[in-house]
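User: Can you recover a sequence for this backbone? Please restate the input before giving your answer.

Assistant: Of course. Working from this structure:
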């Protein structure tokens, strides 16, 4: 089929499957999470090359606190490590970092790291990278509504969009979930309204440039109708004679 869509400006990814990647190699789950960071670095580069403007990734959900304590603390340590080791490279690549999620639940050290990374990369323009960390779509919606209510503002679709965690970007065009599950798991519930959804069986640490290209190729031939008919989209809509 001929591509009909321009490449997506905003791609969002549920990076799932790290644990299974490790378990299938008889390795501890945390090794899978480490490989997941390498996978993210690779996909950031691939997005820059493909001129994608915004990449949003789900790194830790508000529900992931329910995991065993050693896995949760391992994930927090990995975040602290990534903040100290990876930001310089992202800075060189022109990546602007935003951390999206409820910071109140994070340690002061991690909170400070997130703030520093955002400040350090604030003038970069090549790619916006939103890292959803301690994020939940329900939290995002409730938090936006609470902010508006506290300011005595009316709750409308527009005012909500302005108050939500991704108000600095357009909505995602394409949401990819790796790891074979067919669900959103509380990711971008509001912003997913008209995103194209793509589910890949590939476990996140194995999700490479070719796997990304397969998703982009499928996106290119999807028909985005936004409630209209196919005939309207193709311009062959004729008004019926009365
Ligand atoms: C996704 O991989 C990373 C996080 C949720 C932090 P998982 O850890 O969920 O991997 P699986 O789904 O157990 O394989
Ligand atoms: C979603 O994956 C969260 C992240 C990728 C960070 P999960 O592995 O936590 O999702 P469920 O629990 O299978 O729905
Ligand atoms: Mg999972």
């Amino acid at each position: 089929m001929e591509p009909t869509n321009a490449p997506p400006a905003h791609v969002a990814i549920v990076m799932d499957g790290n644990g299974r990647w490790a378990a299938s190699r008889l390795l501890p789950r945390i090794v899978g999470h480490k490989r997941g960071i390498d996978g993210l670095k690779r996909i950031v580069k691939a997005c820059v090359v493909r001129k994608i403007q915004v990449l949003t990734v789900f790194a830790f959900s508000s529900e992931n606190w329910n995991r065993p304590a050693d896995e949760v603390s391992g994930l927090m340590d990995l975040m602290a490590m990534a903040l100290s080791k990876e930001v310089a490279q992202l800075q060189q690549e022109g990546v602007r970092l935003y951390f999206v999620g409820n910071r109140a639940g994070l340690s002061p050290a991690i909170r400070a790291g997130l703030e520093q990374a955002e400040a350090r990369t604030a003038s970069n323009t090549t790619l916006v990278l939103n890292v959803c960390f301690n994020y939940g779509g329900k939290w995002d919606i409730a938090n936006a509504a609470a902010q508006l209510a506290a300011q005595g503002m009316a709750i409308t679709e527009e005012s909500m969009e302005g108050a939500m965690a991704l108000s600095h970007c357009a909505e995602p065009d394409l949401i990819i979930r790796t790891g074979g599950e067919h669900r959103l798991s509380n990711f971008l519930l509001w912003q997913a309204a008209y995103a194209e959804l793509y589910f890949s069986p590939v476990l996140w640490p194995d999700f490479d440039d070719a796997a990304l290209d397969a998703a982009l190729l499928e996106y290119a031939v999807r028909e985005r109708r936004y409630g209209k008919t196919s005939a309207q989209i193709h311009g062959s809509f004729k008004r019926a004679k009365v």
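That completes the design. Strands lie at 10-14, 54-61, 95-100, 127-135, 174-177, 196-199.
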